[in-house]
């Protein structure tokens, strides 16, 4: 039989082994928890960086799109100016042609001229800036919707701010080509600067040997385009609360 000392030693040894095993398990468990916590934190950092990177990329994509749109709109000023005034002059020419065709058999030339003048006089476009003018090929002004005091005056000697003979050049243009664009510098309402670039489109109205025209300042069309672009950008939304803002220096 084992002695009392042997039994006591065995119990102590067993207890120590159990304690060591327990402590080892606890330590291993703690190390595993710490390792997993650190790994989780690393994963969270990586995920956060990925999300931030994705949001940055999305913001860049949205802003690049807005910038591209602004650049596109900026380049449209001259083209839109030309398109709008040409369309409106064709419209005026169509009105004059219709009235002439309808009443040439029953009205005198003077009556027809007055009828066409007064039909075109009140028409406005481009937010009220645009209007029609008509001039005889010899330079005699027939219609100036905003400067009626010039009507029935010969304007062949009228020069722009750089010395170009505007009416004479327009008459030569339609005399040779029937229609076309003419660019010159002109004064502008509510501006002290006399050198604003203006583009006109003129078209021959053959029955009276008139040219009918309309003009516009590209800078005004550019301002219109800016407003259109800003309205478009203002409506951009992404990721619920994302938006684009615009400023200038």
| Number of DSSP strand runs | 5
Which strand order does the major sheet show? Answer: 2-1-5-4-3
Measured by DSSP, the beta-strand proportion falls in 5-15%
Structural class: alpha+beta
Query: In whole angstroms, how far apart are the ends?
Result: 101 Å
Average pLDDT works out at 84
The geometry reads as rod-shaped
Q: Please report the number of helical segments.
A: 5
Roughly how many Å is the radius of gyration?
Answer: 41 Å
Low-confidence stretches: none
For the biggest sheet, the summary is: 5 strands, antiparallel
Order of helices and strands: HHHEEHEEEH
Amount of helix = 55-70%
> Oligomeric form of this entry?
single chain
Outline the secondary-structure elements:
Layout: H1 4-74, H2 77-103, H3 109-120, E1 132-136, E2 141-144, H4 166-177, E3 179-186, E4 196-205, E5 210-216, H5 218-234
Antiparallel strand pairs: 1-2, 1-5, 3-4, 4-5
Helix pairs in contact: 1-5, 2-3, 2-5
Can you tell me about this structure?
There is one protein chain. The chain is an alpha+beta fold and 249 residues long. Helix content is 56%, strand content 14%. It contains five helices and five strands, in the order αααββαβββα. It has a five-stranded antiparallel sheet with strand order 2-1-5-4-3, sandwiched between helices. Helix 2 packs antiparallel against helix 3. The chain is rod-shaped, with a radius of gyration of 41 Å. The N and C termini lie far apart (101 Å). The mean pLDDT is 84.
């Amino acid at each position: 039989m084992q002695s009392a000392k042997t039994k006591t030693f065995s119990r102590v040894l067993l207890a120590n082994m159990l304690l060591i095993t327990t402590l080892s398990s606890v330590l291993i468990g703690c190390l595993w928890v710490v390792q997993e916590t650190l790994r989780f934190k690393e994963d969270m950092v990586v995920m956060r960086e990925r999300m931030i990177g994705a949001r940055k990329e999305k913001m860049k994509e949205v802003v690049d799109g807005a910038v591209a749109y602004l650049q596109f709109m900026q380049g449209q000023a001259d083209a839109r100016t030309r398109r709008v005034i040409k369309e409106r002059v064709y419209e005026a020419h169509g009105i004059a042609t219709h009235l002439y065709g309808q009443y040439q058999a029953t009205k005198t030339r003077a009556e027809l001229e007055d009828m066409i003048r007064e039909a075109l006089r009140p028409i406005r476009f481009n937010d009220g800036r645009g209007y029609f003018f008509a001039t005889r090929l010899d330079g005699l002004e027939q219609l100036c919707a905003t400067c009626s005091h010039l009507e029935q005056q010969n304007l062949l000697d009228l020069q722009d701010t750089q010395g170009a003979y505007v009416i004479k050049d327009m008459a030569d243009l339609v005399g040779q080509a029937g229609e076309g664009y003419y660019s010159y510098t002109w004064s502008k309402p509510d501006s002290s600067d006399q050198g604003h670039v203006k583009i006109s489109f003129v078209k021959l109205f053959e029955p009276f040997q008139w040219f009918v025209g309309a003009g516009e300042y590209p800078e005004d069309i550019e301002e219109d385009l800016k407003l259109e672009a800003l309205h478009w950008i203002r409506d951009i939304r992404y990721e619920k609360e994302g938006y684009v803002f615009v400023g200038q220096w």
